[in-house]
Amino acid sequence: MAFSIILRVLAAAVSLYMLLIMARIILTWFPAALEGKPMVLLSSATDPYLNLFRGISFLRSGTMDFSPIAALAVLSVLTQILSTAAAYGRITLGIVLALILRAGWSIFAFLFGFLGLAMTARLVAYLARWNSLHPVWRVVDALINPVMFRLNRAIYRDRIVNFRQGLLTGIIILFGLRILGGILVGLLAGLLIRLPF
C-alpha cells in the first residue's frame, strides 16, 4: 500500500515536471517572454534536462528540432511505468518493455501522421492551384520533399513520378504505416504485458 502511494506521488511529480517543460518550450516561441526572474527559474529547472536531448544529432533535421519531443516522450514513459506499477502493485520487465515499445511507437506514429497531414494539405493546395511559391508552401515542401522522394524511390525505383502521384503515394504509405504499425505494436505490447517476469 505505501509502495503504491509513493509511486503515485512520483508519477504526479514527473507529470508536473512535464508541464514545466511544456511551458518552457511554448515560451521560447515568444522572445519577449524569455526575460524576468520567473523565466530564469523555469529555465534553470528545465534546461539541464532538455540539454541532454539537444546534444543528440539525429533529433535535429535542418530547422526542425525534435529533441523536446524526445525529452517529453522519455518523461511520458517514466510516468506510465510509475502509474502502471502503482495500479498493479508491482512492475515486471514485460510491462516496462511494453510501455517503452508504446512510447517509442507513439513518436513514430506522430511523425507519420504529421507528415501525412502535411502531404495531404500540400496535395489540396496543388489540386486547388494555390500559389506554390508562397512561403508557407515552401516550408511545407522543404519538410515533406525528402520523405516523399525516399518513399517514391523505394516504390517506383527509377521511374519518373509526377508531383501529384508522389504526394498520393506518400500519403498512402505514411497513413498505412501508421495504422499497421499501431496494430502490430498493440499486439506485441499485449504479449509483453502478459509475461510473468
**pLDDT average, as an integer?**
85
Low-confidence runs (pLDDT<50, min 5 residues)?
A: none
Assign the structural class, choosing from mainly alpha, mainly beta, alpha/beta, alpha+beta, or little secondary structure.
mainly alpha
What global shape is seen?
flat
Q: What is the strand tally?
A: 2
Radius of gyration: 21 Å
Main sheet: strands, sense, barrel: 2 strands, antiparallel
Distance between the termini: 21 Å
Helix content: over 70%
- Give the count of helical stretches: 6
Order of strands, widest sheet? 1-2
The percent range for strand residues is under 5%
Following the backbone from N to C, one meets helices and strands in this order, namely: HHEEHHHH
Question: Strands, helices and their partners?
Answer:
Elements: H1 2-27, H2 37-54, E1 60-61, E2 64-65, H3 67-88, H4 93-127, H5 135-156, H6 163-193
Antiparallel strand pairs: 1-2
Short description:
Strands 1-2 form a two-stranded antiparallel ribbon. The protein contains six helices and two strands.
